[in-house]
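We emphasize that the prediction below concerns an isolated chain of 124 residues; any contacts that depend on oligomerization or on bound cofactors are therefore not represented. The input was used exactly as deposited, without trimming of termini.
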Amino acid sequence: MNVYDKAHELARALSVSKEYRDYKAAKERIYQDETNKKMLKDFKKRQFQLQAAFLSGKQPDEEELDKFRKLSELIQHSPAISEFLQAEYRLNTLMSDIYKILSEAVDMELDFMQEDGEEGDKGK
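Result of the prediction step, given as a token string:
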């Protein structure tokens, strides 16, 4: 068995999965409307900046948080953007599940994800 052949087989299966097809269709709808496209890009940019600030231990200023909250509210009223974000979440969940399955198969447990004092199922 060639591992790369299996990886390509998995890639083909992913490309025809419902999660990917839904994501791709939702993305195409967003990109057909310039206002939605701009709003989504702004949302993603602000989301990334806030996550980067939190991860680096910095507290974003209240003005940036307020802008993000307002943009989030606007997005909730856009069915196309909400649909896209939901489809993106489902695809990301699928990809995360696959990564978890693969990492467990080669004993790459993500121990740092467990609470202190918790033990994984492998050692029991």
